[in-house]
């Protein structure tokens, strides 16, 4: 009886590792975890009963093996179907190792259930040795792949930071180039229905000179917030530089693009900066639509030319590229 206690402690340790792994690793379904935890007192009671009151090594092996098999099956399912967008390879490795260990545990439970009573657990046959080895392998795989996944997340996080503007959390120019390139290369996306809005905050230098750069930052943040709140989730918004913003409108016809541009202009002009009511922000917008085999940079260049004309026309207005055709 005493020689089986270390095995029970090892099983509990493994169980905690599996529960912790799929709870933290992949944002698992907490209801599954809760249901499994509820059975821990039941399993503990059965182990105590078949140790102290009706000693049976076989029964204890069947109980522990069955519970661990179910735990690892659930862990494998939750890890593989977790909510995090992780590197698939380490996720598959962990899930496969847990599934294989669950299979050996299930086989062990079935064979022990139908065999004669085990007298010396330390002299157990391969039926008990193989599940132990696979369990150790699963823990090693879990530790290795956990580091792998965390490193992948860190790399992804750093890459995301390099693509975002720190002041507004919008895409920066590098991020815009990457997202736009993906948009134009996507065969399911019709790039000929893509429109670009090049927006520039009017008289921004005067705001900085009269109120300070910290107020200028507030104005930029307010404009970014308005763009995020009132444009579509499919639209790509970028702080292109300084007080300039670029908005990519995919799958947008000319009339809808015209309506969106006017909506943005009116929203900005009607907005008031908190604690600075004397600031009446406005933006000038240049609009261009993709035609033929134009690149993203060419499209932005056309929108920038239209923006320059909007500035020359008195600001707080919209100018459309000469190739822009209204429906």
Automatic annotation (TrEMBL):
Biological process, per Gene Ontology: cell adhesion involved in single-species biofilm formation; negative regulation of bacterial-type flagellum-dependent cell motility
Uppermost EC category: transferase
Coiled coil location: none
Cofactor list: Mg(2+)
Key words of the record: Membrane, Transmembrane, Transmembrane helix
Domain GGDEF, first and last residues per copy: 192-323
Pfam family, one: GGDEF
Cellular component aspect of the GO annotation: plasma membrane
Molecular function GO terms recorded: diguanylate cyclase activity
UniProt-listed InterPro entries: Diguanylate_Cyclase (IPR050469), GGDEF_dom (IPR000160), Nucleotide_cyclase (IPR029787), Rev_trsase/Diguanyl_cyclase (IPR043128)
Transmembrane regions: 36-53, 59-77, 89-110, 130-150
Protein name: diguanylate cyclase
Organism name: Vibrio maritimus
Lineage of origin: Bacteria, Pseudomonadati, Pseudomonadota, Gammaproteobacteria, Vibrionales
